[in-house]
Amino acid sequence: MNNLKLISDYYHFSEVFDRLIYSKKNRNNEKNTFESLKKEIEKLSIIYNKNKNNLVFADGNKNANLMVIGEAPGSVEEKMQRPFVGDAGKLLDKMLSSINLLRKDVYITNVINFRPPDNRKPTDTEIGQFYPIIKKHIELIKPKIILLLGSTALETFFKKKYSISKIRGTWLKIQINDKAYDCIPSFHPAFLLRQPDQKKFSWIDLKLIRDRLTKINSIYG
């Protein structure tokens, strides 16, 4: 009994106990925060006459330095409930692999979390409804770099200020509350499947990301 008391006292007075409790609270808070975000998104299912089972939330590593944001899920993504798992997703995997990244090394989501009818482009109104959600999503992940894939992702944060064909490969800043996030726009993989000759420009963008990540890793480990 005395030994048990000594062990108990050690945990309480050596700060190990506090660290364990703090870690548990953090895990619970993270779970509740992501769950609350999903609940907010579920409320927007009515826009597309969907239900929560059609929600395509995200995939990958919540602690990733690179966050990838696309447009909206397609039919395959809706069925699998994971972003970028169709043909465009397979190309994205190859693109990431070209700079030595796997899907599990990054965090992937879309501006719109439900499939629009006939895979059409989301309207400005729809984008505006999801805009507060994607901002909260970014704040949860706290990425060092955000890769914006395609014109919809670009327009979500910069309206009609830039054209994807002219601004791709350029470092920009996304300001959310008091924090600025480095981002770089590039062509959407679905576009590259239709226009494979444009892949050479995406490769330039990917190398910029690779070099920036190398610097980040050298600083933060």
List the helices and strands and how they pair.
Blueprint: H1 2-13, H2 16-43, E1 58-60, E2 66-70, H3 75-80, H4 87-97, E3 107-110, H5 124-141, E4 145-149, H6 151-158, H7 164-167, E5 172-176, E6 179-186, H8 189-194, H9 199-220
Parallel strand pairs: 2-3, 2-4, 4-6
Antiparallel strand pairs: 1-3, 5-6
Helix pairs in contact: 2-5
Structural summary, described in words:
- It is built from nine helices and six strands; from the N terminus they run ααββααβαβααββαα.
- With 221 residues, the chain is of the alpha/beta class.
- The protein has one domain: Uracil-DNA glycosylase-like domain (Uracil-DNA Glycosylase, subunit E), CATH 3.40.470.
- It has a six-stranded mixed beta sheet with strand order 1-3-2-4-6-5.
- β5 and β6 form a beta hairpin.
The CATH C-level name is Alpha Beta
Number of domains: 1
Q: What order do the helices and strands follow?
A: HHEEHHEHEHHEEHH
Largest sheet: 6 strands, mixed
Gap from first CA to last CA: 44 Å
Order of strands across the main sheet? 1-3-2-4-6-5
| Secondary structure: helix percent | 40-55%
Radius of gyration: 20 Å
Give me the CATH superfamily: Uracil-DNA glycosylase-like domain
Regions with little confidence, pLDDT below 50 for 5+ residues:
4-28
Structural class: alpha/beta
**CATH architecture heading:** 3-Layer(aba) Sandwich
Number of distinct helices: 9
Shape: globular
Strand content: 5-15%
Find the CATH topology: Uracil-DNA Glycosylase, subunit E
**Mean pLDDT across all amino acids:** 89
| Strands, count | 6
